Predict the structure.
Amino acid sequence: MRRVGFIVNPIAGMGGRVGLKGTDSRAVLRRARERGAEPVAPRRASEFIAALGSLASAIEFVTCPGTMGEDVLRGHGLAPAVVPGRRRGQTTAEDTRSAAAAMAKMGLDLILFCGGDGTARDVMDAVGQSVAVLGIPAGVKMQGGVFATTIREAASVTVRYLWGELPLREGEVADVDEEAYRKGRLSTRLYGYLLVPYEPRAVQGMKAPAALTDDVLENRDAIARYVVEGMEGDVGYILGPGSTVKAIGERLGLPMTLLGVDLVKDGRVVAGDAGEADILREMGSGSWKVVVSPIGRQGFLFGRGNQQLSPQVLRGAGKDGILVVATRDKMDGIDRLRMDTGDSEVDGLFQGVVKVLVDYGVFVAVRVE
């Protein structure tokens, strides 16, 4: 039997759809719940176990009490060993660290954690590079290089590693200042490394920072000019996060949110830093298009840092209502685009080839996987 640790951060990802970009404090978590946020990580963890299928019974799981893993595993008919820990009440980062530290002493083959960048930092603080680790993506940003690209790939990598098919590599753990992130400033640094199964098509790399050379800025402006000149007067535009998309708003002379989602119609911002509910409410009237830029190096269109653009929003827009923009410099580091919305049907709508606007009137065709 392979022995695997299983840690779920039950509050990870709750800030995404409601536009809060993380849940790193009790105050932010309270605001997320007030806005109607629902748990993300337990559902994603359950989908992971389901993706393992019958092989889950060939793994001896060691997990945390209650919502931090035990509930999910028992819900799939498994009987895990449970390390000591909090069984009721709000979980904390210390609960994750203490559980991971206990598991590291047990000689496990792998520790799985379901969460985001903050959870990755807590796991790294506890285990260092003493044991192999893999992140099941459930956070908001997930800019580090320790996460599988999707739930299904997380299951595949887990099985292949446990049965000796994959080596290990050092995966980057990202330190993101969430308070700065909520204020529209992306402050990210390398926090450290975890040992992660090496499968470059299934485990993401760390997000690449945006270049700010004169050529890139000129390229970004050319993209913005083309988009603005082609805007239709009776159509609203949902502008996703990132500096390339923000340049579109700046050319319109409108105040934009660098790391949020803004809705523009009739020459004005009708909803700034919008959550999913705001977007769906506005989409109820008239025609809307989504403008989005993929994440540097990782290639994600949806499912990383823009969960406000939910499956329901994307269904409403349709594939033809999505405009993908990216500078040439960014696309030089992306060989494919990815989807991880949490809805396989919506992800499937984008499979195949998508056109990406990379300069004034210039498109390139890129495969979505």
